[in-house]
Amino acid sequence: MENDKSHNFLKKNLPGGSARPNSSNRWLDNGGASMGKLPPQAIELEEAVLGALMIEKDALNSVIDILKAESFYKESHQRIYNAIITLFTNSEPIDLLTVTNQLRQLGELEMVGGAQYVTTLTTKINSAANIEYHARVVAQSAMKREMISVASKILQDAFEDTTDVFTLLDTVEQSLFKISESNIRKNYADMSAIMTEALRELERRREQKDGLTGVPSGFTQLDRLTSGWQPTELIILAARPAMGKTAFVVSSLRNAAVDFGMPVAIFSLEMSAVQLVNRMISAEAELDSEKLKKGNLAPHEWTQLHQRIDRLMRAPIYIDDTPALSILELRAKCRRLKQQHDIQMIVIDYLQLMQGDGGKGGGNREQEIASISRALKNLAKELNVPVIALSQLSRAVETRGGDKRPQLSDLRESGSIEQDADMVAFLYRPEYYGFTQDDAGNSVQGVGEVIIAKNRSGSLDTIQLRFIGKYTKFADLDGYYSPNPSTTPSGANTATFGNDAKMPPSSSFDTSPPVGGTFKSKANDLGGMHFPPPNPSEEPPF
Fold this sequence. Notes:
By secondary structure, this protein is of the alpha/beta class. Helix content is 42%, strand content 11%.
């Protein structure tokens, strides 16, 4: 029956039906009138609320955060409520006489029905005992009218051939969110309730022996400093080209997804999904990226590859390599990923390749980047996840003397990036600039530094990591070990730390599966590479 009603309504009102809309689209703009119904309203309760406000001086305190002038259906009621708010703002008393006089001064007394109508309102109710309940009913009717208006506008825009569907989708989401935010506000809480919640949170954290309260990066010293990437925070990871930004962030999201089973998403605007997956394979299997590129692997390396990528294949990693992604598309995709897969972290590689709202060319690039950084911060808060955005640094780093360590002023194209970010981290490798030792004489070969230059929720520090260039990965400085160069083809030899300490053979690697999830990518064939089995009698596992 409901479907029949909808069908008949569409047949009567949509283009091609018996009642085509006129040029002014009045059937779209008048809300429920197009369906033969009056818009939602509560006239009697509006009168009761206004009457209560004029008979009790403190009544406005109960409803001022619930009602706006637009909440009233009748225009005359909107004008009367505005007069009451004006008196309140000017710290003047609110009663029948003052409201009537205020309307007279504004020249609106006759427009609302004269002094007699204002007097009539005070006779509609005896007290303000139930004014908050009455006000909420009035506000709910107003919300319904707003939703009808939004739905009508959506219907109108959806029929326009020139409307961009992604812009429309984002407008729909923002319009509904705006209605919710403007009408449903968080109430205050007393100290006792807040303290109780804080103690509960401390108890939950006490049960977490590792001290992680956010998404772990997998780097021990970094996680000790940050307690993991924190929800709602925008983290900017900036560096000059060739410093290993992508390698670092891929290592971090791999650790979160594989070792901790947390679903993560990466939007790769610079590299294709195939290239990104090839990097992951190189880092996971610890095989030279150049060998993988050429497919030139020895039999024991094929075995090593098959053994180590199983966990990676089943990790909850979601890759999107849409080029020139706009902030509108990003929001829509992230909301969908959050709903479908409950992603816990979002990575964007990299910020300067994104487009602003609608991808329009209006305004300069600095303003566009500022708009993007604000949108990313809002996205982190909306989805309650950390958003890590990679960013380029200006060439000022290269022209500066000394050790060429980056600083906040080097952030490229917009100072608003620094302002919007909760954390700004720089990636720096001394050996890239020809430095082999630090000030204390220690070797810095293979060392990558994560410089925390801004941290709203913690301290600033510099964390040293091990950069393994041939595997395009980062690891803990003292915790990484790689196969000994003297390893035989059978693989049954020792492995060494970066400091040459002996460790068990590679067969002792933990190959247990992650907590759960699946590896999602446009590169489902693992980078477009088809690996032959280690020997002719053995079939590949994928």
